[in-house]
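<instruction>
Derive C-alpha cells from the sequence

<record> Sequence and C-alpha cells follow
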Amino acid sequence: MNNKKFLSKLVLLFVGSLSSAFAQLDGPQFPDLSEVEIPVFDGVPLAGEISAVSFDLTMAQGLTSPKLTGTGTVSATAFDVFQDEALLVDFDGDMNFSASAIKTGSIVRLTGAKTTIDPLSVSGSGTLYNSETEQYEDVTVSSVKGAFAFKSLHVDLDNGTIGGGVDKIAAGTLKISGYVTELGASSGGTVSAKYGTEDFPELDFPAENIIYPEITLDDLITTSKGVVTGTAVGTFGGYDDVSFSVKGRRSLKTGISTLTLTGTGSGKGVNATLNLDDDGQISGTKNALTVLGYKLKF
C-alpha cells in the first residue's frame, strides 16, 4: 500500500473513531417518557352497596408493591337477614380492601378485588321477631364476618371510570353474631345472611391520578468498548424519587445503548430497561418499566 492510500485510510479510521466517541452517551440524559401512562390508585375512593349494606373506602398503592390495599367503613341500615323481616339489624364497622392491578393498554383490571369486614370493629343493634310471644325483641350485634368479592372490576382510563358495564360483586354470605339485649350474651348466637350478585356502579377515576414518569440519567460514562455505567433518578408523581444504578452497552452497529436501571434503597423493586439513541431518546419498542406493581412495555 502506498503512503497516500495508507494516510487516507488512517484519516478515515480516525474520523470514524472521533464520530463514535462524540456520539456515545456521556453526561446527563433526559429521555422523553411522556407517552408512558401510569394510573395511581393511592387515595382513590371506592364505594358500593349490597342489599342494605354499603361500604366506603380509600385505596392505597405502594411504589414497589404489586398489591393494592385500602381501608374504610361498612354500614347497614335495616338489613333483612332472613329476607322475611324476622331479623332486622343496623351495624357499622371497618373494612379492608385488597386487589392486584394489571394494566393492558388503557384498561386496568383489579383482579382478586375484595373488601373484607373487620369483625372485631363491628357494633350494632336490631330487632328479632319472637314467634312464641309474637313480639319483637331488641338485639345487640356483636360481630359481622364476611367479605364482598368482585366477580370483575376494571378501570377505563380513556373514559376516566371505575366499574360499571359488566362489573359485579359476587353472591356471598355474612355471618352475623349477636344476642337478645335484655337476656345478655348468654342468649347469643350466629346466623348466616346470604346476598345475591350485585351490579357495581360506575364511579369516577380522577384524571390527576394518571401520571407520567420522568427519568434523568446522570454521570453516564461510555467506554471505548461500548460499556455504559452511571446513575439515574426517577420521578413518579407524588411518590419519593427513586435512585437507580445504571449498566448497559452501546451497539457499535446500531448506535443504540441498551441500559438496565435498577432501583436502590427504598426504590428497590423499581426497574427499567431503556434503549436510547445517541441523542438520549427512546428507540424501538423493547423498553420496559416496573413500578407501582405494573410491568409496562413501550
About this structure: The chain is about 5% helix and 55% strand. The chain has a mean pLDDT of 92. The radius of gyration is 30 Å. The chain has two domains: 18-36+212-297, 40-207.
